[in-house]
């Protein structure tokens, strides 16, 4: 059997771009790609076997993706996957990710993000698969004590949402796993704010309902799906008073995962490593609006409203460890992020349902 990479949540936003990158690059052609996704946040048209993003990736690359519509909490389902494929490593994206919703539904979030992750790890251990890339988040840092945020910054302090806590708890679980058995090789990638889309404009971010995040909200205003953007606060101690974040192109992020997998080939590599993936530069909400207006040629009407509960003024990453350890650096600019988001949104005004 050919070696395979198991991608949980591979039909979602970051997962689908990573699958695309894995299949596009010939140096990964030795691997089969196996995706497990329960489609809670991914779209499949009626009567189709595969979710729309994976169908499109297969069309673009001419390659096959093995797909399983299975919940990562389904132990028997995971056993079937691990016994049917020669899985060498796992990239674990599957999770619920809406910060606000997690406050309303903590049990659902802890179930999916923590129990699901433990069930996956049990299956990995059972089948002797110890290489893992985990989707973590800058949210584990809480309110920054200093900027830029490096990986030595304390984590878990003052986290307010069950979502954020679930990412922090999973990191603690992974540290314990690595202490318990030196066979584990875990890279926890702490994403800053992923935006953008594949340059083809055929896959991209497709939030269900009202977008929670800034970039999809702006692009839905630009395409006419939403009337205006609400800017949450202009009284932060930042360049123009609006919140500052480290936006990173999803293609750069996807390439970070490919680099992480390459590290597993080094025999001296083991244990738990947390690595920031960002650009190292922060942009304010107003800067994002103006960059998007330039890329799209559309006016983005907006209104300043009160701060959003739980928001911080600013964050951006120290990305030097990613460069040292993974040999990775983000190469795409803010203009690239806006151009590619717009190409996706314009071609797919209603997302994958278009
Ligand atoms: P997404 O919702 O687009 O993708 C997650 C995928 O996982 C979806 O396709 C969903 O159907 C699937 N899924 C959810 N629960 C599952 C379960 N129990 N079993 C099987 N599949 C399940 O989200 P995304 O933006 O691609 O995020 C991917 C990962 O990156 C998540 O772990 C998220 O927490 C993390 N992350 C995302 C961001 C961001 O802003 N997008 C930032 C930091 C970290
Ligand atoms: C960015 C800026 C808002 C929407 C979230 C999660 C975090 C991580 C990344 C997963 C802020 C402002 C937003 C809007 C606005 N995800 N904004 N109007 O809050 O940095 O992080 O996504 O791990 O955990 O919390 O991203 O895109 O929601 O907000 O003014 O309609 O845009 O206040 O300053 P955030 P965001």
From TrEMBL:
<keyword id="KW-0520">NAD</keyword>
<comment type="function">
    <text>Catalyzes two distinct but analogous reactions: the reversible epimerization of UDP-glucose to UDP-galactose and the reversible epimerization of UDP-N-acetylglucosamine to UDP-N-acetylgalactosamine. The reaction with UDP-Gal plays a critical role in the Leloir pathway of galactose catabolism in which galactose is converted to the glycolytic intermediate glucose 6-phosphate. It contributes to the catabolism of dietary galactose and enables the endogenous biosynthesis of both UDP-Gal and UDP-GalNAc when exogenous sources are limited.</text>
</comment>
<feature type="domain" description="NAD(P)-binding">
    <location>
        <begin position="6"/>
        <end position="341"/>
    </location>
</feature>
<protein>
    <recommendedName>
        <fullName>UDP-glucose 4-epimerase</fullName>
        <ecNumber>5.1.3.2</ecNumber>
    </recommendedName>
</protein>
<dbReference type="InterPro" id="IPR036291">
    <property type="entry name" value="NAD(P)-bd_dom_sf"/>
</dbReference>
<dbReference type="GO" id="GO:0003974">
    <property type="term" value="F:UDP-N-acetylglucosamine 4-epimerase activity"/>
</dbReference>
<dbReference type="GO" id="GO:0005829">
    <property type="term" value="C:cytosol"/>
</dbReference>
<comment type="similarity">
    <text>Belongs to the NAD(P)-dependent epimerase/dehydratase family.</text>
</comment>
<dbReference type="GO" id="GO:0003978">
    <property type="term" value="F:UDP-glucose 4-epimerase activity"/>
</dbReference>
<dbReference type="InterPro" id="IPR016040">
    <property type="entry name" value="NAD(P)-bd_dom"/>
</dbReference>
<dbReference type="GO" id="GO:0033499">
    <property type="term" value="P:galactose catabolic process via UDP-galactose, Leloir pathway"/>
</dbReference>
<comment type="subunit">
    <text>Homodimer.</text>
</comment>
<dbReference type="InterPro" id="IPR005886">
    <property type="entry name" value="UDP_G4E"/>
</dbReference>
<keyword id="KW-0299">Galactose metabolism</keyword>
<dbReference type="Pfam" id="PF16363">
    <property type="entry name" value="GDP_Man_Dehyd"/>
</dbReference>
<comment type="pathway">
    <text>Carbohydrate metabolism; galactose metabolism.</text>
</comment>
<keyword id="KW-0413">Isomerase</keyword>
<keyword id="KW-0119">Carbohydrate metabolism</keyword>
């Amino acid at each position: 059997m050919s070696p395979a990479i198991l991608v949980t949540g591979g039909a979602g936003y970051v997962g689908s771009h990573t699958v695309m990158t894995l299949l596009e690059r010939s140096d990964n052609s030795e691997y089969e790609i196996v995706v497990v996704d329960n489609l809670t946040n991914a779209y499949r048209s009626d009567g189709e076997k595969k979710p729309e993003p994976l169908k499109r990736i297969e069309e673009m690359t001419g390659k096959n993706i093995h797909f399983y519509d299975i919940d990562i909490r389904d132990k028997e389902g995971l056993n079937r996957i691990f016994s049917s494929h020669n899985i060498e490593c796992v990239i674990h994206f599957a999770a619920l990710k809406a910060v606000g919703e997690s406050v309303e539904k903590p049990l659902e979030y802890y179930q999916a993000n923590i129990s699901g992750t433990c069930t996956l790890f049990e299956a990995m251990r059972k089948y002797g698969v110890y290489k893992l890339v985990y989707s973590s988040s800058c949210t584990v840092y809480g309110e920054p004590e200093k900027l830029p945020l490096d990986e030595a910054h304390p984590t878990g302090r003052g986290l307010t949402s069950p979502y954020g806590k679930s990412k922090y708890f999973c990191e603690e679980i992974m540290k314990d796993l690595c202490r318990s058995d030196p066979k584990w090789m875990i890279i926890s990638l702490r994403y800053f704010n992923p935006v953008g889309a594949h340059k083809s404009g055929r896959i991209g971010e497709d939030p269900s309902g009202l977008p929670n995040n800034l970039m999809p909200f702006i692009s839905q205003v630009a395409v006419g799906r939403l009337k205006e953007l609400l800017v949450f606060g202009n009284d932060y101690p930042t360049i123009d008073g609006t919140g500052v974040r480290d936006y990173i192109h999803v293609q750069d992020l996807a390439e970070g995962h490919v680099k992480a997998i390459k590290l597993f080939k080094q025999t001296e590599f083991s244990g738990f490593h947390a690595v920031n993936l960002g650009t190292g530069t922060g942009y304010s909400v107003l800067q994002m609006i103006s960059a998007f207006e330039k890329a799209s040629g559309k006016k983005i009407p907006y209104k300043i409203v009160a701060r959003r509960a739980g928001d911080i003024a600013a964050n951006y990453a120290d990305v030097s460890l990613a460069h040292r350890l993974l040999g990775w650096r983000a190469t795409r600019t803010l203009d690239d992020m806006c151009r590619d988001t717009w190409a996706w949104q314009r071609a797919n005004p209603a997302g994958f349902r278009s």
